[in-house]
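[scheduler] slot 2 assigned
[scheduler] job type: sequence-to-structure, two independent chains
[scheduler] chain ordering preserved from manifest
[runner] begin chain α
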Amino acid sequence: MAFAELALGQIRSLRQTAVPRNYEIWYVYATGYNSALNKIINETLARNGKLTEADLEQIYETYLSHIKTTDRIDKVGSRVIGEIDDVMKLISEALGMSASYDASLSGANKKLESVQNREQLKKIVESLVKSTREMQDTNKALEERLTLSKSEISNLQQSLEAIRAESLTDPLTGLGNRKYFDRSIETAVHTALANGEPLSLLMFDIDHFKSFNDSYGHLTGDQVLRLVGLSLKQTIKGQDITARYGGEEFAVVLPNTALRQALTVADHIRRAVMSKELKKKSTGEILGRVTISVGVSMLKPDDDTDSLIERADACLYAAKRNGRNRVICEADPEYVADSRSQVA
């Protein structure tokens, strides 16, 4: 109860929404059991004086949600182990029955060598028939159990795949999450460098996102994020990789795509987002249009993942500084000018 009071007190003092996610964050914070979570919260509060909705979501995804995923994987794993144990037990019983049947056959063979009358032969045959039926019943039971186990293990495998997919998906937008992005871009960069293929990266950020949250509330902010996610899903297809990078920032990896093509894709996304009107669900009020700023970089022979992201990020902030709602790449004069001023 003391932890609960502390958690609710933090929610009140920071004027956060009293939703289960926020309560869980502050309850865990109050217990002190998750030192990494406490550290990031203390650092963020010291730096900014508050925790934004994006901060809370990032903290939850990073420090709490994976624990639940691990628990679910453990439960499915336990069921798989239980299923295997049951099958192994049945197989052991079948092997014992097989050994018994083999002994019956050997015994019958010896008895047949010394049989003297029809009555003795009849008893031996009846014994063999009985042993054979028992063996058939055991085999049939084993076959049925193995069929059921195959189906059950297949279902459990699908559950594990679903959990894995969920652990790599951003729940708000349905795009890949940061973990998915980090894994995917590493693989894509390695493949592109190994094969000498072009690869481009788009990093983009929602313009004035904070003002949407401040003016209309976090639910409207979530709607903005969903709108951008929907635009990405409708625009990006095939082998291209889309992800919510963090907060209001998104990323798209474009394998086999040179800079000029990447700029076309980026502008297509920008226009797709801007074409949608944002409407407040509760009142039907039109809140305007959402715009994004985009930075584009292309993989160089001496690049690694970090340098590729760093240049795309620098291009993104050059787009923000030069008026927003635009696409800037590393070949554009705005980026070059920014780079020179930073060096100077």
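[runner] end chain α
[runner] begin chain β
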Amino acid sequence: MAAFPFEFAATDGAARTGVLKTARGDIRTPAFMPVGTAATVKALTVDQVTSTGADIILGNTYHLMLRPGAERVARLGGLHRFMRWERPILTDSGGFQVMSLSNIAKVTEEAVTFASHIDGSRHVLSPERSVEIQADLLGSDIVMQLDECVAWPAEETRAAEALRLSARWGARCKAAFGEREHQALFGIQQGSTIEALRRESAERLVDIGFDGYAIGGLAVGEGHEAMCEVLDYAPGLLPVDRPRYLMGVGKPIDLVEAVARGVDMFDCVLPTRSGRHGQAWTWNGPINLKNARFAEDDTPLDEASSCPASRDYSKAYLHHLVKAEEILGQVLLSWHNIAHFQALTAAMRAAIAEGRFEAFRRDFKAAQRTG
């Protein structure tokens, strides 16, 4: 029996809306998880993040194990208490950052050995250690299995090796995780953009049995169309009664197209990263507040929004803050972008519940082209 009940409220085609019920609160799906890499959603207080309607955030195992250290976080009461976030937290396994940020010494059957990007110190991350850090030291609500994510494009033989190693590591994560009443363990489907490999990966994961299933190895450079082609079949290979989480995605149009194909959960650094660089996401697409055309634009980013950053400040003021490199500009744009992504998932939940998701999808895509 899965740790967290997943209750569907409605479906509309392949799109679904429901609730993943955890001990720390309900996660309404489709759900977007703001990324709190180093125990903070960059530039924002937890109260600001909460005000956007976020039900869950993501913490980063790799960064937290290196600084301040997972054992230290545990001594200080766990990640929720450390950062003052009382709602659910999902932690990634650390594998992706190990592969992308570190000077890797080696990947073996046993573990991945790597050098810290901070100080060059040597570390070993095994499936068992990843589970220990996430579940026991950080105390996350949703724990991700350790996996190997290959770069794109990947040769079929290399992608096959990675998915099979990931499956073996997944089984070890499951054994280390055991049975827990208030925490869940998700497996990660790999296989690059090759359907037969995605199918094999899904079958291996289902045989092991997880509380939820992620689609990994996308948003790594393959582009929107190639991602959608994989999502045409990948979610359907995973159990229909468990949450499906598309890792590291993405732009608003990516979220809408993925929901249309049966995905329930997302995370991405894009809202805050964009905000720190002067970009705001709107219902008509992204805009660059550095642009001179906003210098005397007295309109807000979204006057209908309940978010103060979206509603109460003019584009002219935001333009000024960005041009002057004032920290407040980064704060307000990050806050607005997180609020916009939450408004988008709320709009999708409503559209699915009311049986009008295809019309919403069509109108959304049309509006994006005019932005």
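[runner] end chain β
[qc] chain β: The radius of gyration is 20 Å.
[scheduler] slot 2 released
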